[in-house]
Amino acid sequence: MKVNIKKTVSTILPLTLGVFLIWYSVNKFSAEQITEIKHYFKNANYWYVVISILCGFASHLSRAYRWNFMLAPLGYKPKLANNAMAVFSGYIMNMAAPRSGEFSRALVVHKYEGVPYDKALGTIIAERVADLLILGIIVVSTFFIQVDVLKGYLTNMVPIKTLTILGVVLLLLGIGFLWFVYKTNNAISLKIKGFISGIMDGILSISKMEKKWAFLFHTLFIWCMYLAMFYINIYALPETSNMQFGVVLSAFVVGSFTIAFTNGGFGSYPFFIAEILTLFDVPNTVGTAFGWIVWIAQFVMLVFFGALSLILLPFYNKNK
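^ Membrane protein, sequence as received from the core. Prediction below:
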């Protein structure tokens, strides 16, 4: 019962936030501005949107291929098709419940390829660490490129002191929990130890894999495709086609973080994209239209291929 309540809350709260941000965005515009936004949608060049979707598809296919570099040291080499369908089904699960996609990915390769769930989850955590390092480099680079504009914005918008305190508290709680598990030997603690051990095997697989340079190449390729998917969409609207690369980077970074706020960035992605672009003198109506075009492109791709993956998985693996 408690688990069901937790799942419901973790799904409903982000969705509610997304709905609120959409309502707030719509109500702050006048009738003339709403008409203006509709005009942008109507006159957008959607061929660029199609090209951006192809970039997004290539990034996810590369992620599926890269996964086997980490699974190989553990003695597993799932089929690329199963990896790809696990990745896409994971993204559509994130649309339903934030951060559930990582668990569903591990479940797919466990069910259809026999990879132990904890080890599969460990490799996913390891690849997320690698992705966070790349994102961190992009964030730092963006900050130095646009330091004059972003410094004041971040100081006013981000509660750095509160986040630091919260981070320290969560760290201490985590250390306390691990210490308790390590010191006790009851049945629950032993299960947790085994699970943590499996996850650690998965995480450490990144240091044992043979094709480290190939892993690095695909990691960089994935993020280049993410950025390309975002960047190409600026040409869908004449009003955004002349945006400088530094401005695009700033919006890209903000968009990357907002995906965690709500179900796949629903409501929050276009809202915060529009907000950050106003710092660079892009009208809010233009930023809102641009944000929704980028988000809808991602949403359509993930829902289509995610739903297709969920349908095809049992048929593709009918003999297992």
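Residues 33-313 form one domain.
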